[in-house]
Amino acid sequence: MNTILPKIALRNLARQKKRSFLLGGAIAFGIMIVTLINGFAGAFIENVSENFAYLMAGHVFIQGSEKTDSGRRLHVIRDGSLIVEAVEKTALPYSFATKSSEVAAMIIFEGKSIRQNLTGLDIANSTFLKERLVLKQGSWEQSMAPDALILSEKVAGKLNVLPGDRVTASFQTITGQNNVADFTVVAISVDASIIGSVMTYVNLDYLNAFLGMKPGEYMSLGFMLPNLKDASEFSTALYESMKNLGMGLFERSAQDDSGSATPFQALMRNQNKETWEGVKYRVFTIDDVLSQAKQIVLALDSSSLIILLVLFAIVMIGITNTFRMVMYERIREIGTMRAVGVQRREVRSILLALVAMGGLSLIDFGMDSPAFLIMKNGHLSFFLPPARALFNILVISLLTILAAYFPARAAAKMTPADALRTMK
Amino acid sequence: MPIIELKEVRKVYPLGKVEVHAVKGVSFAIERGEFISIAGPSGSGKTTILNMIGLIDSPSSGEVEIDGKTTSGLSDKELTRFRHEILGFIFQSFNLIPVLNVWENIEFPLLLGKTRISPQEKKGWIDWLIEEVGLTEWKTHKPNELSGGQRQRVAIARALVTKPQIVLADEPTANLDSATGEQIIELMKKINRELDTTFIFSTHDAKIVEIADHIIRLRDGLVTENQRRTEEGIIPCP
Ligand SMILES: Nc1ncnc2c1ncn2[C@@H]1O[C@H](COP(=O)(O)OP(=O)(O)O)[C@@H](O)[C@H]1O
Ligand SMILES: [Mg+2]
User: Fold this and answer.
1) What is the pLDDT of residues A21-37, one digit of tens each?
2) Is the ipTM of this complex over 0.95?
3) Which of A5, B74, B112, B207 is the most exposed place for a label (fewest CB within 10 A)?
């Protein structure tokens, strides 16, 4: 095949910059949006559970709740010995258990402040934290200090703190009093994910003292299991075992009359309504916590499919129309070329090649630009399942070729005389 | 042997429910190297006849023979090759390719089909043609930077680049002022003499008709007059 025809086609395309740009831009933008949504949704579903498991220090959790006379609910496990017994009775394995407390706090440093969740745990003995967190500055040795605090790069940047700086945190004790505590920044961690950057770690005992808890008390106990898939079995067994020991427990699954909330939300709502004596425990898994997030992600993903379909329709109409227009404008040129010796087959294939080329570069642009954006943004997790990407590309290519095929065939089929007569 | 012979050629166009009889049984012969004018008022069938001679349209009945060969029954592919090898076209509205410059427009037909010609030979030939049509200064200009007369000169060079035996020009002067039109016809005549290429042009302009040495007049799809002008005077053709 000679090269002059593609050359002419490309020059024509370049001459119609504005139109090519508008249509192309619209298509590329659409593809980009869909790719972005697909990508984020994919990334979320892909690794969010494991991420959360690490950040929350477990797959299965037990929280204790006390209801005071004033109706206030205190999150506290005063004595964990019964729980330990219950776990032993299940005879199920777990990798490690982590005691933790958590509080929403305002961290203040030199006039700057930022809201963070302070997670208190035994930093020095927390292997999972050491595995999970990559330190950018500071060191694990210094986290032995009772008032140690590790925060993420992003938060450190916003507060403008460095290891060694003293920060103040203000929060409420478990009984609702305002309190402040000073911490020393000992390390700054690399932001592994969006979720990771919101976590700030401190030492459990130190935090507990300021929360109004006694030594040895904590808010929740997390079990890290060998595998995420074991969570359901483990939690059920643990629940039964705790029940057998006569411990007060919240229902694991709750019905919700509104129907709109997730089971986990319904559970929480019911717990707020109830009253009880002593400590009552709640057993839940990472999946319970994330079911809502997963639903959002799924909704997002399916809405992106709708966007994709609408986009496909636009692409199809746009291409067919533009193509008709291009051909109508070029029909005399096509007639001239045919008269001068260009074969019918060549006309058809050059028209299709033109569309394919344009289409492919648009698709490429649409798919690459999100990747580029992500790269510039750094740590956003982004994952487009390859099958999904392939599907998007295939559908768009197919529709593009289809949209162009019929006008192209019509133009090629015309007798040169008819083509030349048009547009006079 | 005539280079072109039409035998009882008819062309009927379907037009909605009616039929338009554009050419109603036309026969004539054209000899190699002639400079022919097909003359007639608008709607008399000039374009239709040229299209059939140019193999870009086919007769409803009758025969168009080129170089002694019948052309009916040829496939589109064969017709296209035939056009490329034997025919050159000049159009009323020039029909240059807007994105190609003068030189590239002229080169274009050489890049099609099976034409094989060495780069030096090609360059020499195209440069000669450009010189011949007087556009040496304009080689790298795009069609939209040229006047109508200049564009038609490019078209003439393009029509000649494959060294065709026949050049067809449908109203080549209709979009030009009369002085420029006459220059274009004179240029075609000069090349006709130099290269011995057969030129067939149509026109409704009586003044331009006279430059031809073989005139076929049409009216309502029929030949009303067919005569050659030689040194011996006007000779009617059978
Ligand atoms: N594609 C067509 N469909 C219907 N009628 C046509 C078509 N082309 C030409 N005609 C008719 O055929 C007749 C001859 O047309 P044409 O060959 O273009 O004449 P000329 O070139 O001498 O003006 C005219 O009456 C014209 O209207
Ligand atoms: Mg005409």
Assistant:
1) 776 776 677 677 777 77
2) no
3) B207
